[in-house]
Each structure stands twice: as C-alpha cells, then as structure tokens.
Write a structure and sequence with these properties.
Elements: E1 20-23, E2 29-30, E3 45-49, E4 52-62, E5 72-73, E6 78-79, H1 90-104, E7 109-113, H2 122-130, H3 140-147, E8 152-154, H4 164-173, E9 178-179, E10 183-185, E11 196-201, E12 209-216, H5 221-224, H6 226-229, E13 233-235, H7 238-251, E14 256-261, H8 282-288, E15 294-297, E16 304-310, E17 317-322, E18 329-340, E19 343-355, H9 363-380, E20 383-387, E21 391-392, H10 402-418, E22 428-432, E23 440-441, E24 444-447, H11 448-454, E25 460-467, H12 468-479, H13 493-496, E26 509-511, E27 514-518, E28 527-532, E29 535-536, E30 542-548, H14 549-552, E31 566-573, H15 574-585, E32 587-588, E33 598-602, E34 605-606
Parallel strand pairs: 4-7, 7-8, 8-9, 12-14, 14-15, 15-17, 20-32, 22-30, 27-33
Antiparallel strand pairs: 1-2, 1-11, 3-4, 4-18, 5-6, 10-13, 11-12, 16-17, 18-19, 20-24, 21-23, 22-26, 25-30, 25-31, 27-28, 28-29, 33-34
Helix pairs in contact: 3-9, 7-8, 10-15
C-alpha cells in the first residue's frame, strides 16, 4: 500500500528514497541512505580530473499521462495502436526509467511529472466514480508511480475534474508531493499544495547537490473546473509565483532550480480574455524569471525534445522539454555541474525525449495494476443496449452525422427536463464538439466503451442563455476551424480542418437551429441562413443552449458563453447521461434523433451534397 502523506499546507513529511534527501516546501527534511556509484561508470556521478570536480546527473520527466497505465485502448478493447506507431502507458515508461537508472546510477537520477495524471481513460473514470478512491480503493496511478519512485509531480488542470476530495485522496496515496505554487487557498491565499520540494543528491568527494523542484499549474483551472474550485481555490499566473519561489529556492542553497509546469511553451491561451493570466506560459517564465536552469513542460500534448529560451535579465539559456502525452515519450535532462570555490555551478544542460514504442512493459508495474485493469475491461465491455445501424464519427468534422446528433439529443433532453417553467418556454438548442474521429457505435449490441469512445471527456452539462446575435457570433467563431477554400478550388478534407491550430475538441456544431458555413467566405462572414424552425433567427431572440461545462466556463475562448446567464447546471457527466439513455431505452435508433441541420458550402453550393 502507498504511504500516507500529510493532509496539506506546511506539514512537511516527504519521503526520500535512494540517495536523495527531500525537503518539503515548508523546509523540513528526511534523510535516506546514500547510494554508491557503480564501478566503471564514468559518464555520470562525480569525477575528479586535473584538479576539477564535476558531477553529472539526470532528471527524467513525464507529463499528461492521463491514467494510461498499460499499453491498452479501452475504447477499442485492444492493444493501443496509432498511425505513427506510438505506444502508451506508464508501464512502458518504467522500462525506460530503469534503463536510465541502470546506465547512470540510481543515485544520479530524479523522476518528475508535469501533471494531468488522474483523468483521461476509462480506468481513471472507474476509480473516480465506479469504485472511487474516496471509498477505499487505491488509484492504479498511485500504485505505479510509487513503485517507480517518482520524486515530484505538478498538478495538472485535469486533476480537478473529479473534485477536490478525489484529488486529496490521490495526494494521500502518493509517496511523492503534488506541487502547485500557484494553486492557492481562496480564503488564506496561501499555497493549497506544496509549492516545491528539494532533493539533495549525495556526491562522493564533494558536497551534496541540492536540486529545487518548483511546481506550477494552469490558471485556466479557474474557468474549466469552476464548479469544483470556485470559492475554494484561486489560481494565479505562473510568472508571478515563479518570481516568488525561485529566489526562495536559491536562498535555501539550491544549486539547481528545476521547474515542472503544467503549461505549454508558446505563450498562447485558449480562454481569450477571461483571465489575466497566460495559459501556455512556460517560455515566458523562462524569459522573465532569473535563476531557472530547466523546465519540464506539460499540458499541450506535443513532443518537444529540447527548446531553449534566453532569460532577459541574466542572458542565461534555460532548457525546456515537453514529452509527448500518454507515456509516449520520456524527457531526459542531463546536467553537468562543476565544484567552484566550494559551490556547485551548472556548466551545461541538455534535453531530449525517448520513445516508448519499442520498450517492453515493466513486469512489476503490470503485476501491480493487472487486476484493476481487468476490472475496467470487464466494466467497459458491459452491454447497455442495441443500435439499429452503425454510427461513425469519421466524417463528423465536416458533415452533420447521426452520431453527433445522439450527443445533441441527450444534452437537450436533460436540459429541457431541468429548466424552470419560465425558461422552458424559450427555444432550446445544443452545441457539442466531435471529440474523436475514430468513434463508432456499431449496429447490434452497444457497450459502455462504444459510448465512452464517442464522448471521451468527463464534462458535465449546462444550459446557458444566448441571444440570436450572440449565437451567430458563437458559430462564426466555430467556423474559423475551417481553412478558407475559394470557389472553384477542390476541397481536401486533409487540409480543411484545424485551421489556426483549432483542434477537433474546440470545434462546436449546433443542433436545434439550421445554418450553412461558407468555407469560401472570409472569417467572420461564413454563417448564413441561420434559422429556428424555418424562421430567420432574430438578433434579440433568446435561446437556452445546452453546452458542456468546459465550454460554458470559457474553454477554447468562445464569445459570450462564459458570461451568459445560467438556466441549468448538473454535476452528471454527459457521457454517463448518454449511457443512461441507452440503458433506459434499451435501443439506439438514429431515426429518433438524426436531423441534417447544417452543411458546408462554397459560395452557396453544398460541398458534400
């Protein structure tokens, strides 16, 4: 069983393993036995040559694991496979970690994560909702990460999806600290989680090397999980908190300052002007906050082996690396230090990422989680009803297809049932995104995994009020998803979508109104023939819009919706509402809900007639 840690703030008992001594953000320490340098290993550890003492060590990094433990796809009920040949799962990462430790010496390697650990797969959902860790179960990610001897992890925004109680229980089950210097208690404005930890690496023939690890999370949590954190926590900017804690780590005598940020490195934000803080700010932190040596980056699900930013104040280069999500990659930071007048100085930092595709799954990790995995496989293969015909999501990004109408139908059904008598008189519509192009609900038996593969996020349901003019603005924003294709130019679906790096989960279609999207027109002038029940939508007409909580709270930066009046809200996951619908009706028939109400055009001519 995992070791139980402190409840929260300032209570500092962090467990140290191997050759490291860990200090919590509150400053207490626990010593552990020193490791010994393996004979014949020259490249890592301490070296004494020509009057110089140097020390080389590594920090390994993962991010956005999203509860991928084994190399398995719960939606297809098969070994994970994609077009690029990648593999997933922390069990494969564990093999690479052990290879690095064997080559470099366990005492010369730290292991850190950059967040989004406990949400993202059916396994994650099972241990949050079906057999929740708050009622005695142990999270498989805690089992695996403890066995791998992680030294620290940053909080990701998806850590808050199931509520703070689930997150606190996961924190208790981890033998390493969950760090979040900019995750503050809403009342005291003090860190609600440990802001940092310090690891002391033993060096033979020289003083310990003190490595300060500062964790920063994403300020977008305040919007995306507003229902779970409002009034309880506040999330400030990464730069602001890094400016506070990096000097503190230096004052504690840290020779190396390493950040683990659940924040991308391009300075962008998906929530528009709803918050004064930047979502993807790791590059800005590196540029504006002196004293940082390297940053493990997360959140954006891209593979960036190495990226260098020059600090504006010191002129020093800061090395950043982001490993691909789901355990597809492992970042490796190599540090070389030199002892100069009794203090360690960082001479160089390099970074790269390693692929897990060809790695075997670690036997110990597999054995730890196999029983949990088997339970989840049984759960997701449970049949809940039947479907009259196959419904595919393959073309959902450019055609109005029945599988998307299923989502809209369930959203509107539940919002309608929960409206006040006054709001029930308003026209009701729905917006939703095509999360997965591989989603498919087959003809015949329908299982939980078939529905989960269509709606892969743990979003809950809202009803919000928009005027007709605001709805048109909303749809114009969505239409930016398409590249402009002039009349007379052939439409290629391979290049049509994801314009402006607007990913599929950011693109909403609407049901309950009819409209056309002219991909030949300029952005902002693409929506035409916007009608409700055959009549043109008036600018002042008020609609109730069924929408998920992520979008309702400002996710992806859609206009008007975050500030719109709430007509309905629920804590039930939309995916579960869809499962419940099929369970209750016993069957799924597109004839009951499928309506073609929108289409793409080029100068008024349908693109896909």
């Amino acid at each position: 069983m995992p070791t139980t840690r402190r409840e929260f703030l300032g209570k500092s008992a962090v467990t140290a393993t191997g050759a490291a001594i860990a200090l919590s953000g509150a400053g207490a320490a626990t010593a552990s036995a020193a490791g010994r340098e393996a004979p014949g290993r020259k490249e890592f550890g301490a070296r004494h040559e020509h009057g110089r003492t140097t020390y080389t060590f590594s920090i390994l990094g993962t991010t956005d694991l999203h509860s991928h433990v084994l190399n398995w796809d719960y939606y297809t009920d098969a070994v994970y496979k994609d077009r690029k040949g990648d593999a997933v799962g922390i069990a494969k990462v564990a093999t690479l970690v052990e290879q690095q430790r064997a080559a470099k010496g366990h005492e010369n390697v730290l292991l850190v994560d950059a967040g989004d650990i406990i949400q993202g797969t059916s396994l994650a959902y099972y241990f949050a909702r079906v057999d929740p860790i708050t009622k005695g179960a142990v999270h498989p990610m805690a089992l695996a990460m403890n066995a791998m001897k992680y030294d620290a992890a940053a909080l990701g925004n998806h850590e808050f999806n199931y509520g703070i109680d689930v997150l606190r229980k996961f924190e208790e089950q981890c033998d390493f600290p969950l760090l979040g210097a900019n995750a503050l208690d809403a009342t005291t404005l003090k860190p609600a989680f440990e802001p940092y930890t310090v690891k002391c690496l033993r060096v033979h023939g020289g003083p310990h090397v003190k490595v300060g690890i500062l964790g920063l999370t994403n300020p977008g949590i305040a919007l995306w999980d507003k229902d779970n954190v409002s009034g309880k926590m506040r999330f400030t900017g990464l730069v602001e908190q890094a400016k506070k804690y990096v000097p503190r780590l230096r004052s504690l005598g840290c020779d190396v300052v390493f950040l683990t940020d659940h924040s991308g490195l391009d300075g962008s934000s998906s929530y528009g002007d709803s918050l004064p803080y930047v979502e993807n700010a790791s590059n800005i932190v590196a540029e504006q906050v002196p004293g940082i040596d390297a940053i493990l980056v997360g959140h954006t699900h891209v593979d960036v082996p190495t990226y260098t930013v020059t600090n504006a104040e010191t002129g020093k280069d800061v090395v950043l690396s982001e490993p691909f999500c789901y355990g597809k990659r492992l970042s490796v930071f190599d540090f070389e230090l030199e002892l100069v007048r009794g203090r360690w100085r960082v001479n160089s930092v390099t970074a790269d990422t390693l692929t897990t595709a060809d790695a075997d799954q670690d036997d110990e990790i597999v054995s730890l989680v196999q029983a949990d995995h088997d339970l989840v496989v049984k759960y997701v293969n449970t049949a809940v009803g039947t479907c009259a015909q196959d419904m595919s999501g393959a073309e959902a990004c450019w055609k109005d297809v029945p599988i998307m109408d299923f989502i809209h139908h369930v959203q509107m059904k539940h919002v309608a049932a929960g409206l006040s008598s006054a709001d029930a008189a308003l026209p009701l519509i729905s917006v939703a995104a095509p999360f997965s192009r591989t989603a498919d609900i087959p003809a015949g038996d329908v299982s939980i995994r078939d529905i989960a593969g269509l709606y892969i996020y743990d979003n809950t349901l809202y009803g919000k009020k928009l005027t007709g003019a605001q709805l048109k603005d909303y749809l114009e924003f969505a239409a930016k998803y398409y590249a402009q294709v002039p009349v007379g130019t052939k439409v290629d679906t391979a290049t049509l979508t994801n314009n402006h790096s607007m990913w599929d989960y950011m693109y909403d279609t609407a049901a309950g109104v009819s409209y056309e999207i002219d991909i030949a027109a300029a952005e902002g002038s693409r929506i035409s023939k916007l009608q409700y029940k055959g009549a043109d939508v008036a600018d002042d007409q008020v609609f109730v819009v069924a929408v998920n909580n992520y979008r309702a709270n400002g996710g992806s930066g859609y206009p008007h919706i975050a500030d719109a009046e709430i007509a309905y809200s629920s804590t039930d996951e939309i995916r579960q509402l869809m499962i419940d619908y099929v369970t209750a009706t016993g069957s799924l028939d597109p004839a009951d809900f499928a309506v073609t109400n929108w289409m793409l055009t080029q100068g008024g001519t349908p693109v896909f007639p």
